[in-house]
Amino acid sequence: MATTYITAAQSQAFDAYTMNQIGIPSMVLMERAALAVAHQIVNSTSFDLNNVLVVAGTGNNGGDGVAVARLLHLNHIPVTIWLLGNRDHASEQTQQQLTIADHYNIPVIADQPDMANYTTVVDAIFGVGLSRDITGKFADVVDAINAAKANVMAIDMPTGLGTDDGQIMGTVVEATETVTMSYNKLGLATDNGRRFGGIVTVADIGIYDPATLTERKS
Fold this sequence. Notes:
218 residues, alpha/beta, Rossmann fold, seven-stranded parallel β-sheet, two-stranded parallel sheet, 7 helices, 17% strand, globular
């Protein structure tokens, strides 16, 4: 069976259809995404789980990462969340995930830690919707991740890799593995995608092309 590759716009449209038309809540999809990522981290031979750092943005990709941190914590894996940006300005779902993480006493830090202390890094900074080059503080974070010895799991897309064309948007996280949601992304099929995405796993989290649902119904 041929792999289906989609664009960022398609990914966002399929997400919106699943939530707004079918009625599956965003938090349910986020939990399923986090379960897929956590499962891959725990079962892959790529990752040393002695001390994990989840680097989370304030959008929903960051919310996925915060949920991954909780699932790893529940597996008795030491994990810290490095939150980039103002928590009060995070998406509603990411704020919810942070509140849940607080109940589990998972450390959430705002300042850059000593990256040498971590054996695995989870890139949950930006997802498929990145539309401009990464500069300033975020570029510094990407550089810090790439300079660390820890292997990296990227959620959906390595931060800085163009979803549609695989172009480097200022700078890019060099991922060891990527778990991308529902369908593979065009950017991951490019030379840059193969270089920076590493081993790609496509996770079925319950989001589908509406046209395929119509076909199944008929």
